[in-house]
Amino acid sequence: MLFRAPLRRRSPLFGICVGRRARLAYIGGEHGVVVPPEILTKRLRLDDLTADDAHALFTYRSHPEVTRFQGWCPAAVEDAGAFIARNATKPFNQHDSWYQLAIRAADTGALIGDFGVHFIGDDGQQAEIGFTIDPASQRRGLGSEAVIAVLDHLFTALQKHRVYASVDPRNEASMALLKKVGMRQEAHFRESLFWKGEWVDDVVFALLRSEWRA
Description:
With 214 residues, the chain is α+β, with helices and mostly antiparallel strands. The protein has helices at 54-61, 64-67, 77-88, 142-157, 172-180, and strands spanning 3-5, 9-11, 20-25, 35-41, 44-48, 97-105, 111-120, 126-133, 162-167, 184-195, 198-208. Strands 3-4-5-6-7-8-9-11-10 form a nine-stranded mixed beta sheet, sandwiched between helices. The chain has a two-stranded antiparallel sheet with strand order 1-2. Helix 1 packs across helix 3 (77-88). The chain is globular and about 40 Å long.
């Protein structure tokens, strides 16, 4: 299942929700949280990517099942390490920027995916999401467990007004997941993106804070 992520790349999504809670670090200023959160669920921990994650990130991000819909595909472990280093220079919840969180197994801390959040516009009221799950960890409900936890964090802790995601409609599993977690299909743009040598459709799903847990 593949979801758009930073740089208009798409990422696999799988799973259903379990319990969740978030621990945040705040730094003063009008932009709110700038230190990445630690978001805990029954089976997952979402936190900052580290240099030690480079090999695992490279392994699943270069997997054929993942690269089909991804714009960023590391050619070597060093590329993954450079991506992590660049990510570490950014504050979390900074307007007009993407931030990539690690998705880890809560019991072992092993990296099993990554979750991108795009903080949109000068007013900071909207965000775009996209993430990738290692194929070895798919079809266990972990994708939706992660996405519901992040949605809850964006709407509850950060008070975002709207969160959206964009997906290739050929990716039926992701389409089903987005509907399952309560996101609405807002648009279907026909052949609107030139993607890897062909014109492809783009479907946008979204959710408002007022609709979250309504």
